[in-house]
Amino acid sequence: MHQLLCKGFRFGALLQAAVGPVCLFIFQTAASSGFWAAEAAVLGVTLADLFYVTAAILGIGALIERSSSAKNIFKYLGAAVIILFGISSILGSFEINIIPGFGTLTGTNSESAFIKALLLTLSSPLTIVFWAGVFSAKAASGEMSGKEVSYFGFGAILSTLVFMSMTAMAGTLTGSFLPSSVILMLNILVGLVLIFIGLRTALRS
Asked: Closest by alpha carbon to 45, among 121, 108, 130?
């Protein structure tokens, strides 16, 4: 069991090396609102990953993979959420709130950070398909049994918790000595990157 957890953790750590919209959001939240708000966001990300990994193990990802219409719906819905968060990030830098109840970026509390991170992570539902492919390959090759795949998946989720917490810490340290004008530019830059990622997701064939 210990070896499988370590294998899953290493695999998850490899995935974390690719900086995505969620990682940017965690860093931005930490720099703007502090460590504990960012850590609440990390918890939201971890719970969303747990949901997707569990769904993949249960076989839901395989069902989505067979339906091109379902994949397209999820793709465009996810892209729209990411773009919305990008726009919210930019406008929130100027204290303009377009998502009711979430507050602006400079006033993000732990509760709103948790919900934002949860929604942002869930905006990529094709993650289920990815994990379903990984687990199916492991099981089909005879490398792991069904139960062992679960340990592997749990190890990958642990890596999300650890590395996103490290990102939150880095963002907090960065935000502690950066002037407010630089934080403002960081929020705008992250917003632009999120919009780009959302558009790329929508246009990707």
From this structure: 121
